[in-house]
Amino acid sequence: AVDTLTSRGVLALGLLGGSEDVLWAGSYVGGTGHAEMLLAEVDGALTAAGVPRQEIAAVAVGVGPGSFSGVRVAVSFAKGLALTRELRVVAASSLRVMAAAASGPETHVALLDARRGEVYAAAFDAVGREVAPARHLRLGPETDAWLLSLGGPLCLLGDGVPLVTAPPGARILRSPATDSPDGRALLRLGRAMLGA
């Protein structure tokens, strides 16, 4: 699993075939250098997990919304690997990945800072079904109205949470796994998508 949407690149390696095992998961600070760093980080992960490159059978990749350059790096990597090795590739919304790292009965609202006074936002129910598709919202009345339209109860997560006004009663969840896409969550979603 690989996502280079934000300045923090995330990677995870796991087993296919119904196993929930995570062989290795980690992150690195890529900033604007994902294109230069990703292959070395993947090689390091494979070495740390003791997995030869030829054993890779599928790739789950985060596809944004977010930084065009970041998304392009991860997708290019996955596509290049898939074409040269005839691997299966699944793509997951990075907002869905963030929401999947949360638990609880509420509607999970993923908010990612899009800069320039805007956020990327999407909402998912407790089992991961999309309630409100990904959108690009201006901070202020537009975001406030959208959040209120979701009803409740809500769990707000992501690095965009401090930028919005939380509706009354909303639970706020901030953690490294939910502030931006998480490799373990992407790995779980990728397995489910491959199984489907």
Overview of the structural elements:
With 196 residues, the chain is of the alpha/beta class. It has helices at 34-49, 68-85, 94-100, 141-149, 176-179, 183-195; strands at 2-3, 8-14, 22-29, 58-62, 88-92, 107-115, 118-124, 130-138, 154-157, 171-173. The strands form three sheets. Strands 8-7-6-9-10 form a five-stranded mixed beta sheet, with helices on both faces. It has a three-stranded antiparallel beta sheet with strand order 1-2-3, sandwiched between helices. Helix 1 crosses helix 2. It is globular and about 50 Å long. The protein starts with a strand and ends with a helix. The mean pLDDT is 92.
Number of E strands: 10
> For the terminal residues, how far apart are their CA atoms?
17 Å
What is the helix fraction of residues, given as a range?
25-40%
In percent, how much strand structure appears in the residues?
25-35%
Rg, alpha carbons: 17 Å
Q: What kind of sheet is the major sheet? A: 5 strands, mixed
Helix/strand class: alpha/beta
Identify the overall geometry.
globular
Q: How is the largest sheet built, in terms of strand order? A: 8-7-6-9-10
What integer is the average pLDDT? 92
Give the uncertain stretches in residue-range form.
Answer: none
Q: How many separate helices?
A: 6
N to C succession of SSEs: EEEHEHEHEEEHEEHH
